[in-house]
Design brief:
Length: 176
C-alpha cells in the first residue's frame, strides 16, 4: 500500500530565498477528500516557495490527469488538467483576507500544509462538464448503448408534449 503524501512544508528556520518542492498527487491523496466524483488521478505539482520576512510566495505549476465519471454516459473518463497558480502567505494574528490568493496564518506557525490548496487548484482546473471527447470524425466516444438509450428517452419526451390538465387549470388563474 502506498503511503499518504506529505504535503507539509516547514518554513521556520529557513533563510530568505527560493526553495523548490515537487509533489505527485495520486489515488490515495484524492480519496482522502471524500469526493466521489474525483477519487483518482495523477497530478504532478512543482511548487516554488520564496521566503521573505513576514511573507511567503508560492508558485504552483501542475499537470496530469484525474479520473471521473462521464456526465453523459456514466462511464469512467480521464480528464487532462494543467495550470499555474500563485499564493501569498502573510503572517498575522489579527489580520484576515477575503482574497483567494492571499492566505493569512498565525505568526506562531512554523509549517504550512498545501494539501487542501493543491486539491482546490485541481478541482478548479477541471471543466464544468465531464464528457468524453469526440473522435477525429466528430463522433462521440461515449458508450454507444447509453447514447442510444438517451436518444430514445429524448424522443419519448418530445412525443409527450401534452400539458398536464392540472397545469392547464393554473393558466386560468392569471392576474388581469
Amino acid at each position: 500500500m502506498t503511503e499518504k503524501i506529505d504535503t507539509k512544508i516547514q518554513f521556520s528556520g529557513l533563510k530568505s530565498g527560493r526553495y523548490t518542492y515537487g509533489f505527485t498527487l495520486n489515488k490515495i491523496f484524492f480519496a482522502s477528500f471524500g469526493n466521489e466524483n474525483l477519487e483518482d488521478g495523477e497530478v504532478s505539482f512543482s511548487v516554488v516557495m520564496e521566503k521573505a520576512d513576514h511573507l511567503l510566495t508560492f508558485d504552483f505549476s501542475f499537470t496530469g490527469f484525474v479520473r471521473s465519471i462521464c456526465d453523459r454516459c456514466l462511464q469512467p473518463l480521464e480528464i487532462p488538467i494543467e495550470g499555474h497558480e500563485k499564493l501569498l502567505v502573510k503572517f498575522s494574528d489579527t489580520e484576515t483576507s477575503d482574497d483567494e490568493n492571499i492566505l493569512v496564518v498565525s505568526e506562531n506557525e512554523y509549517q504550512i500544509d498545501l494539501a487542501h490548496i493543491m486539491y482546490e487548484y485541481v478541482v478548479t482546473a477541471l471543466p464544468i462538464q465531464h464528457i468524453h471527447p469526440d473522435d477525429e470524425d466528430g463522433q462521440s466516444t461515449c458508450d454507444s448503448v447509453m447514447l442510444s438509450l438517451l436518444e430514445t428517452m429524448q424522443q419519448k419526451d418530445n412525443n409527450d408534449n401534452e400539458i398536464d390538465p392540472r397545469w392547464e387549470k393554473l393558466k386560468e388563474l392569471k392576474i388581469k
